[in-house]
Amino acid sequence: MNDTVGIIIRTKNRPVFLRRALKSVQEQTFGRWKIVLVNDGGEPGIVESIVASMPESTRQRIELLHHAESVGRSEAGNAGFRALDTDHIAVLDDDDTWHPAFLETCMQRLADVRGRVNTVKGVAARLHMVSEKIVGGRIDLLEVSEFRPEISHPDILSLDEMLRENFLGLCGVVLDRQAVIAAGGLFARDLSVFEDWDLYLRLMVRWDIAGIEERLANYHFRFSETDSDLGNCVVAQQADMLLHRQMLLNRWLRQSLQTRGHGQYANARRHFVTLANQDAALLNTTAQSIDMVKNGLIVVAKTVMQMQERLSVGH
């Protein structure tokens, strides 16, 4: 398999993370990759010095894009996507990392699954969550845990489950670049969070994403950084997440009313869930009624036995 992978890394004034992310890519056992590094409004000299410190074999595979002013997460990602001509794409935020076998395992998994299912246009590995803090410019590890341990990654991921919630981590996904183009592009410009969820749904209403049970990507987060550049965007934007989630749900439903697409299915699914809950409640009530009847019969049987014993004693 000679397919190539283009890696989009978005960064802004976070050199301590960027060095780690680039090292993570450099250590990949899969060698056919290139990076588009998007400096979204950060200090250019810092990024350039980090790239210059990399080995020449790595520097030659890094394309650096500078934005004089920040255009935001989604547009920064789109700029990187437009610069790529590879077969597949992956997005690695500057504060996340990969296991050295991440790309190799993903590409092998794609090859294996496509030999059986021709609808697969992407692959997703499971993640670790890494809690950390910055102390004096140094990254201190606090805790490593499993990301969504209750969610498995079967051969083919469920569109039904994806409609309910986004259970993937962006750093664990590799997608077919042409499929992303056909699905409307990488990220919606107006989304600052949930841009990946929107992408997965646009892709999965047409094709499939295969799963990998191994945890090969690391989602790093920090809860209490006073420097906004060093914080974690998802932790820092909880209010925006609620706003954008409802905006996405409304958008999908509006699209469904026009095209009878996945929004309508998502809306209908809520009714199915409600009916299922009602059925479960009914079954529970029925079971309770049966138990009451059984208990009543037991009481009656005991009473009859006691009466028989009394009659026997009387005789």
Task: Please state the oligomeric state of the protein chains shown.
Answer: single chain
Share in helix: 40-55%
Average pLDDT works out at 85
Rough outline = elongated
End-to-end distance, in Å? 94 Å
CATH top level label of the largest domain:
Alpha Beta
CATH superfamily of the largest domain: Spore Coat Polysaccharide Biosynthesis Protein SpsA, Chain A
Tally of discrete structural domains: 2
Number of DSSP helical runs? 11
Biggest pleated-sheet summary:
9 strands, mixed
User: What's the architecture of the largest domain, going by CATH?
Assistant: Alpha-Beta Complex
In angstroms, what is the radius of gyration? Answer: 27 Å
Question: How would you describe this protein?
Answer:
With 315 residues, this protein is an alpha/beta fold. It folds into two domains: 5-236, Spore Coat Polysaccharide Biosynthesis Protein SpsA, Chain A (Alpha-Beta Complex); 260-315. 47% of the residues lie in helices and 22% in strands. The protein has eleven helices and nine strands. It has helices spanning 15-26, 44-52, 56-59, 73-82, 102-114, 159-164, 177-182, 195-204, 233-236, 238-259, 262-314, and strands at residues 5-11, 33-40, 62-67, 88-91, 97-98, 120-135, 138-146, 173-176, 208-221. Strands 1, 2, 3, 4, 5, 6, 7, 8 and 9 form a nine-stranded mixed β-sheet that branches. A hairpin with a 2-residue loop joins strand 6 (120-135) and strand 7 (138-146). Helix 10 (238-259) packs across helix 11 (262-314).
